[in-house]
Write a structure and sequence with these properties.
The complex is a heterotrimer.
Chain A: H1 7-42, H2 45-60, H3 63-73, H4 83-108, H5 112-120, H6 125-140, H7 142-155, H8 167-178, H9 181-209
Helix pairs in contact in A: 1-2, 1-4, 1-7, 1-8, 2-4, 3-4, 4-6, 4-7, 5-6, 7-9, 8-9
Chain B: E1 3-14, E2 17-28, E3 32-36, H1 43-50, E4 58-63, E5 66-67, H2 72-79, E6 82-85, H3 97-108, H4 113-126, H5 142-154, E7 160-164, H6 172-187, E8 191-195, H7 199-205, E9 208-213, E10 216-221, H8 223-228, H9 233-246
Parallel strand pairs in B: 3-8, 3-9, 6-7, 7-8
Antiparallel strand pairs in B: 1-2, 1-4, 4-5, 9-10
Helix pairs in contact in B: 3-4, 3-5, 4-5, 5-6
Chain C: H1 2-45, H2 48-63, H3 66-79, H4 86-112, H5 115-123, H6 128-143, H7 145-155, H8 170-180, H9 185-214
Helix pairs in contact in C: 1-2, 1-4, 1-8, 1-9, 2-4, 3-4, 4-6, 4-7, 5-6, 7-9, 8-9
The chains are: A mainly alpha, B alpha/beta, C mainly alpha.
């Protein structure tokens, strides 16, 4: 077993792209997911239907298919996007559907009595949702959201299939060029393990810091 | 005394169940009226129809001459003039006691943070909870939570406060502190409509008792008259059950 | 549109390829089940070393991306002269990965059984092993059903990743089509998406029925709904 340590900088370079893609797609997923969740919980008929359909479609089809549709399918309709854009868009739209469900769970677990109290003070519906429900939902959603972040980090590996040289892509290139699949991918696996570990710690600490006593439990 | 709240012929059905079968009464400024009656006779529904947390099927509610309709903007404005205290407190879990009391003035009335904080501190002091300003709801006892919720309502400077069984969810030894606050509010001249089982409170504070049964007001009279000489058999029946439950002079 | 016609001509081939996805799904879930329940039992009833090892196993197989595992299991042995069939490699890789998640589910189910029941079984004179086998396991298996069917429907989409190790499943079949006729890319891929939507729908339907049939009355899972998803 020979592993050329010259490969490490290249892999690190790939890792940078992995992190960039993950950050971008999770951000896109969060923004869109929150909108979808609000639309699903508080929206009227057509809005709610659209949000629910979106969520079902993106959760019911594989990420790989979604990515392929954007990268291979869209050009046949005259829309050609860069590889990076395709990757972030596919991963982001996918993540949004899952994040929407986490947000929805969090929103719905905020005690409805509090919404009534906010309305009784004279707050409009949207103000009550924005000032009372959403701040709590954002705190409640953190564990699931951390999970999503780590999951997307791992699933970002699918972008190698559209010739993007993220950690996975670089690994594949190195491995096939030198026919050292075993060593290279052991190191790749190690990279992912370390990154996941490095991200999990701060996230767990964050969860503990923003915890408010009694949040998430219904009134005692 | 001028009439502040005017309720006429409120009817409310839930599915096949008619909960309010036609309720009418007036509430004048400075008056305290207490609604009593068996469970499930629509007392809470009545309060919720007044500030339109539930929409009545028919009937009219007027505050200070202005009719309360479902129209969003005017409804929000009217709600700022009516306080509502819930049975289950419904404090905002993510805010401290101080945060809970000042959010109304800040977000609804547009007060500055500094002014709202000052006001919130005053109201917390009024209900006797100054030292708990930075506590979160989960860190407070039930009685303390309910007092914060009263302070939250007071911070909006309402002309009228609706109380929906404010002490029903409290352990017995915590009821007193909440009733004390309510009594002092009444003494200060606040207009109050209270749904409650606390007969002692009703007797000492209410200007009039409204006895509800079967979705309508069966009898209304000043406490001394209602408790000692009820004119309706149903009233007498209910009062008899209550006194056997609590023994003699109810609390 | 003629594109639709062209695609419908490819449908039989695509559907045949999708059978491989289903077969892979069944294989990997089965492997995941056998290994997962064993790991869970080790975690709950094992000694210190056994628990640490199984803990590490779980963590490793959950934290490494599925694609990396696939490559390791398929190309790795090839490097040492051992040829492994794509199906076997994919089944092992994804199966062991699933076992890490399934062991969590099973472990949670075991731990949700009140400990008093084990004590009662022992009080009757049962040995520890007998108590676990006759009292704990049957309940744990039924309590695992919601989480297990969740895993099942999550993992069906992962089977497409096996294209990367040469398995001729539906994604690879689709690629073959639009590599030759690129203008068919969109319709073919949409057809594949549709196949998965139907699979997901059918799967949920069947699993829902199974869950309802074997549900232990009085045990509503607290973690059935907001459980974080683990697959794409």
């Amino acid at each position: 077993m020979t592993f050329d340590f010259d490969w490490v900088p290249q892999l690190a370079q790939g890792l940078v792209l992995t992190v960039e893609i993950t950050a971008a797609c999770v951000a896109l997923g969060a923004a869109l997911g929150l909108l979808l969740a609000v639309g699903r919980v508080y929206g009227r008929g057509p809005i709610r239907a659209v949000c629910t359909t979106y969520i079902h479609i993106f959760r019911g089809t594989p990420l790989l298919v979604q990515l392929a549709i954007l990268y291979f399918g869209l050009p046949t309709w005259g829309i050609t996007l860069s590889r990076f854009t395709c990757a972030v868009l596919a991963l982001g739209l996918n993540s949004a559907a899952y994040q929407a469900e986490y947000f929805r769970g969090a929103i719905q677990s905020v005690d409805t009595g509090q919404l009534a109290a906010a309305r009784a003070l004279g707050m409009s519906r949207w103000r009550a949702v924005g000032s009372i429900v959403i701040p709590q939902a954002l705190r409640l959603v953190l564990p699931s959201w951390s999970n999503e972040l780590i999951l997307m980090l791992k699933y970002s590996s699918v972008v190698f299939s559209i010739s993007l040289y993220d950690l996975m892509g670089v690994g594949k290139r190195l491995a096939s060029r030198h026919f050292r699949y075993f060593e290279v991918f052991l190191v790749v696996a190690l990279f992912y393990l370390v990154v996941v570990f490095l991200i999990s710690r701060p996230l767990r600490m964050l969860e503990r810091r923003i915890r408010i006593p009694g949040l998430g439990n219904s009134a005692h | 005394m001028e009439t502040l709240l005017c309720v006429r012929d409120l009817i409310k059905t839930y599915g096949a169940n008619t909960v309010l079968t036609g309720v009418s009464f007036d509430l004048a400024r400075g008056e305290t009226k207490v609604v009593i009656g068996p469970s499930g006779t629509g007392k809470s529904t009545l309060l919720r129809c007044i500030n339109r947390l539930s929409a009545p099927d028919s009937g009219r509610v007027t505050l200070d001459g202005i009719e309360i309709t479902g129209h969003e903007k005017s409804l929000n404005r009217i709600r700022t003039r009516m306080g509502f205290v819930f049975q289950s407190f419904n404090l905002f879990s993510h805010l401290t006691a101080l945060g809970n009391v000042r959010i109304g003035p800040m977000r609804v009335k547009g007060m500055s943070r500094a002014a709202a904080t000052e006001l919130a501190k005053e109201e917390l002091a009024r209900v006797g909870l100054s030292e708990k300003a930075d506590a979160y709801p989960a860190e407070l006892s039930g009685g303390q939570q309910q007092r914060v919720s009263i302070a939250r309502a007071l911070a909006m400077a309402p002309e009228l406060i609706l109380f929906d069984e404010p002490t029903s969810a409290l352990d017995p030894e915590l009821i007193g502190e909440v009733l004390d606050v309510m009594i002092s509010l009444a003494d200060d001249g606040m207009t109050m409509l209270v749904v409650s089982h606390e007969m002692g409170f009703a007797r000492s504070v209410a200007d009039e008792i409204l006895f509800m049964d079967g979705g309508t007001i069966v009898e209304q009279a000043p406490p001394e008259q209602l408790f000692t000489a009820p004119t309706q058999p149903r009233t007498a029946e209910f009062l008899r059950k209550i006194t056997t439950l609590y023994g003699g002079d109810a609390r | 549109m003629e594109a639709l016609l062209a695609v419908s001509r490819q449908m039989p081939m695509l559907l045949r390829a999708s059978v491989l996805n289903i077969e892979l799904l069944l294989a990997l879930v089965a492997i995941g089940f056998v290994v997962g329940t064993s790991v869970a039992l080790c975690q709950v009833y094992g000694g210190r070393t056994v628990r640490t090892i199984s803990g590490v196993y779980e963590w490793v197989f959950r934290s490494i991306p599925a694609l990396v595992l696939l490559f390791l299991f398929y190309f790795g042995p090839a490097q040492f002269g051992l040829r492994i069939a794509p199906f076997l490699a994919a089944g092992l890789a994804l199966g062991l990965r699933s076992s890490a998640y399934q062991s969590q589910i099973f472990r949670g189910a075991i731990q949700s059984i009140p400990t008093g029941q084990l004590a009662a079984a022992r009080a009757l004179g049962m040995s520890r092993m007998r108590a676990v086998i006759t009292i704990i396991l049957p309940q744990a298996l039924r309590l695992s059903l919601p989480g297990w069917s969740n895993e099942f429907s999550a993992v069906v989409k992962d089977t497409t990743l096996a294209y990367a190790v040469g398995l001729n499943e539906i994604m690879r079949a689709a690629r073959v089509v639009y590599d030759r006729q690129y203008e068919l890319a969109m319709p073919v891929l949409l057809a594949v998406a549709l196949v998965f939507l139907l699979l997901t729908f059918a799967g949920n339907f069947i699993l829902g029925g199974v869950e309802r049939r074997w549900h232990i009355p009085g045990t509503e899972t607290a973690g059935g709904g907001p459980q974080a998803d683990r697959s794409r």
